[in-house]
Amino acid sequence: MHKPRRTRPSLQASKALELKHLRSAVAAADCGSVRGAAELLRSQQSSLSRTISEFEHHLGVPIFERFSGGVRPTRPGCDVLRLARTILEEFDALVATARSVHNGETGRVSVGFCTSLSAGNLQASLLEFKDRFPQVALATVERSRTRLAAALRNGALDLLIVTGSLPLLDTKAMSLWSERVLVALPHDHPLSSRETVYWPDLRGETVLLSHCDPGKEVEDLLVSKLVSAEARPKIERHDVSRGIIKSLISMNTGISLVLESDIGAHLADLVYRELRDGAGASRFEFSAYWRADNENPALQEFLKLLSERYSSPSIDR
Questions:
Q1: What is the rounded CA–CA span in Å between residue 105 and residue 216?
Q2: 16 or 162, which is more confident?
Q3: CB 5 within 8 A of CB 48
Q4: What is the per-residue pLDDT across 153-207, written as a single tens digit (0 to 9) for each?
Q5: CA 223, CA 213: separation in Å to the nearest integer?
Q6: Does residue 285 sit in helix, strand or coil?
Q7: Average pLDDT over all residues of the chain
Q8: Residues with Cβ within 8 Å of residue 174, at least 6 apart in sequence
């Protein structure tokens, strides 16, 4: 079958692109359907569908595959959507900064993370900062580590709080807290009757992990604890959020590994048990990263708060 010839986006077409095209496409990707995106953006479904079609026409590539249940990004669409998200984040940061200046606010600090905000030290730190400095605008962004690193590098974010090391040039780092690794189980799972679960107990199980961070780090930890492939559980990777993983667990499709802060968003039919080995509980370390040349006074106050709470000196990178 003869394939339609793809056209290159012209200079005139690039001028025709607007932020609404980016927002519409990103919303459709997030919701998995044009209908859901229209509800999210409070727009007419027909209008949103037309905007996305215009976006594809201007670019000369199909962004989505359409099917009866909704839409899914094409291979080139994934690349386009990744850049579209970055552009929207930077534009929103620009608008927020201008608004804070216009409103006479004393400052703004933007914090990126890829962990749960439902409980734990990150939530407590953000709440304390808001209590201390209610006049400072606090923006939070949850993204993958790669996108967070790019946003920090280009100045769209002031601070990252993530697990593990994040090698970036011209950045500083501060060690913060650690969180235990837990196993999330259906309430009627045989392991739920135990107070503590050991790594070898996972043999024969199906472990559901999200492609979202820190899923890869959790998988690496599991492999390091169970070196023999025969002793490891089956690992299924899903391109969904951690919240969807919990729903899959409640459907008895498997178990998962989570951090302590995840248990704040609790489902009634899930239980959590600490994972241990001979040395005790397994833990993930959290650190803060920021650009060395960032002189934002609000950032300095946030770093001071973190230093007071966790008594960790900063480390030059």
A1: 39
A2: 162
A3: no
A4: 888 899 999 987 777 778 999 999 999 999 999 999 999 999 889 999 999 999 9
A5: 17
A6: strand
A7: 84
A8: 287, 288, 303, 306, 307, 310, 312, 313, 314, 315
Q: Is the peptide bond before 62 cis (omega within 30 degrees of 0)?
A: no
For helices 145-153 and 75-102, the axis angle rounded to 10 degrees is 50
Query: Which one, of 148, 156, 107, lies nearest residue 130 by Cα?
Result: 107
Residue 74 carries which DSSP code? Answer: -
What is the rounded CA–CA span in Å between residue 289 and residue 166? 8
* pLDDT at 189 (0 to 100): 94
**Identity of residue 214:** P
Please provide the DSSP assignment of 165-230 as one string. ----TTEEEEEEEEEEEEEEEETTSGGGG-SEEEGGGGTT-EEEEESSTTHHHHHHHHHHHS-SGG
Say how far apart CA 70 and CA 79 lie, in whole Å: 19
Measured CA to CA, the distance from residue 148 to residue 268 in angstroms comes to 32
> In degrees rounded to 5, what are phi and psi of residue 312?
-125, 125
Q: Which of 95, 127, 100, 126 is nearest to 113 (CA)?
A: 126
Q: Which two tokens stand for residue 271?
A: 């239980």
Which residue is associated with the tokens 């390091």?
224
**Three-state SS for 3?**
coil
Please report which helix (H) or strand (E) contains residue 11, including its range. helix 11-16
Q: Which two tokens stand for residue 33?
A: 């359907």
- Determine contact, residues 290/213, Cβ cutoff 8 Å: no
Q: Is 290 helix (H, G, I), strand (E, B) or coil?
A: strand
CA distance 188 to 269: 8
How much is the pTM? 0.64
Tokens of 225: 């604890």
Tokens (6 digits) for 233: 């559980």
Find the mean pLDDT for residues 266-281. Answer: 84
